[in-house]
Design a protein that fits this description.
- The protein has eleven helices and eight strands.
- Strands 3-2-1-4-5-6-7-8 form an eight-stranded mixed beta sheet, with helices on both faces.
- α1 links the parallel β1 and β2.
- Helix content is 45%, strand content 13%.
- By secondary structure, it is of the alpha/beta class.
- It has one domain: Rossmann fold (3-Layer(aba) Sandwich), CATH 3.40.50.720.
- The longest helix has 25 residues.
- The N and C termini lie far apart (42 Å).
């Protein structure tokens, strides 16, 4: 039978951290996690929206355990503060959803000088994961349940990347907003696979999750920014897009299914639509050497190494 939210097991006693948990796929994910007993920490850039999400979840599940903490993935200092605060409150973290993201924004830079989408969508999540590794390792070392899981949200936009050149992932001097988005989302998939390869033996497993073509605030904002034919086409596509409740299922399955396989991509059965299944990854995106090179680049850019984060 097709996997759905009713298949989520009892999550009592487990802690989940969800970036961008105040809207879209993240909010749907938080609602289901809380309804099944997990303590959910929402990382939100906008605390007003974060508190509104918390109120919605508590209205649906009065006994829900939900925290909202400020998180700006476009700042390594802000990521460090968030991680320190969360780890101090929760020495064991069982699920980390690297979910938040920007889509096709104009060229710009983060607080640390990275291209905005690559810096926020990928490097910010890389830094957050590295900062939370001790808490994830503590959960993975308990020997109970499936260990700790890091779920990285990718996108079908990864297919749009014509060249994935490790030394040119920030497209300096030849920026294209959609190419930059695709690069950041391909990087998230490769990050998940490399994390599982490096840390699976220590009880921390990496998963990639593709929501398919889902109707979320991220998509509608992108459509509103377009003109002419592109706007009309995107608006029509949104009309047939699957709801966020379906789009969140791949990451929920990756994080909660007792039989989920680390180092795998969970995606809709029909590529852009349908219930979540493991999807085969082929071509250069499946190249372990490229995954390792991307990891090394992220360590250099963020100044965070695996050896220092998890001796």
């Amino acid at each position: 039978m097709a996997w759905n939210a009713n298949d989520i097991p009892d999550l009592a006693g487990r802690v989940a951290v969800v970036t961008g948990g105040n809207r879209g796929l993240g909010l749907v994910t938080c609602r289901h996690l809380a309804a099944h007993g997990a303590l959910v920490v929402i990382g939100a850039r906008n605390m007003t929206k974060g508190e509104a999400a918390r109120g919605l979840i508590r209205a649906e599940t009065p006994e829900a355990q939900v925290e909202v903490r400020p998180l700006d993935l476009a700042s390594l200092a802000a990521v460090e503060s968030f991680a320190a605060e969360v780890a101090a409150a929760h020495p064991r973290i069982h699920m980390l959803f690297d979910n938040a993201g920007l889509m096709a924004v104009p060229e710009g830079t983060t607080a640390d000088g990275f291209e905005t989408q690559f810096g926020t969508n990928f490097l910010g999540h890389f830094a957050l994961t590295m900062r939370l590794l001790p808490a994830l390792a503590a959960a993975g070392a308990t020997g109970k349940g499936p260990g700790a899981r890091v779920v990285c949200t990718t996108s079908i936009a990864r297919f749009s990347v014509r060249k994935f050149v490790i030394d040119d992932l920030q497209l300096r001097g030849h920026y294209d907003p959609w190419m930059a988005y695709g690069i950041s989302k391909r990087a998230m998939l490769e990050f998940a696979f490399e994390l599982d390869r490096r840390l699976g033996g220590r009880g921390i497993h990496g998963f990639a999750a593709d929501p398919g073509y889902s109707r979320t605030e991220l998509q509608t904002t992108a459509a509103a920014s377009m003109d002419g034919f592109q706007h009309r086409l995107w608006a029509r596509l949104l009309f047939v897009a699957q709801p966020p409740e379906m789009g969140a299922l791949p990451q929920l399955r990756a994080a909660t299914d007792p039989g989920a396989r680390g180092g795998a991509l969970y995606a809709p059965k029909w590529l852009a639509f349908g219930h979540p299944v493991i999807r085969r990854v082929v071509g250069s995106i499946a190249n372990p050497a490229e995954h390792a090179a991307l990891w090394d680049l992220a360590e250099r850019e963020t100044g965070l190494s695996l050896a220092a984060s998890l001796p």
